[in-house]
Amino acid sequence: MAGMTGAVPYYGGRFTPAQAYAAAHPPRPPAPPPPPPATHAPPLSREGQVEALQHLLDTGVLTQEEFDELRARVEQ
Q: 11 or 21, which is more confident?
C-alpha cells in the first residue's frame, strides 16, 4: 500500500492530523504595509496663523480669552 500513496499516511479518505490542524488554523494574512513617512507642512505666515486662530474661535474650540492670548503670542 505504501507504493500507492507514497510516504503519506492514508486514512480512508479522511484528513490526516496535519491536514485537520492546517484547516483549523488558517495562515495569518500578511501585515499591512507601513504608512508613508510624514511630511511636514510649511510654517504658516502670521496672517495664516491668525486666520487659523479665528477659525478655532468661530467653531468654539477656543474661548475669547484663549484666542486673545494666542493672538498676542503670534503677533510678537
A: 21
> Which of residues 4 and 2 earns the better pLDDT score?
4
Mean pLDDT, to the nearest integer, of 10-17? 72
Q: In angstroms, rounded to a whole number, what is the distance separating the alpha carbons of residues 14 and 20? A: 9
C-alpha distance from residue 28 to each of 20, 21, 22 (Å):
17, 14, 12
Q: Are the C-beta atoms of 5 and 11 separated by less than 8 Å?
A: no
Instruction: Name the grid cell of 76.
Output: 510678537
Neighbours of 54 (CB within 10 A): 13
Greater pLDDT, 6 or 54: 54
Q: What is the rounded CA–CA span in Å between residue 24 and residue 14?
A: 15
Contacts of 57 (CB under 8 A, 6+ apart): 63, 64, 67
- For residue 30, give the amino acid letter: P
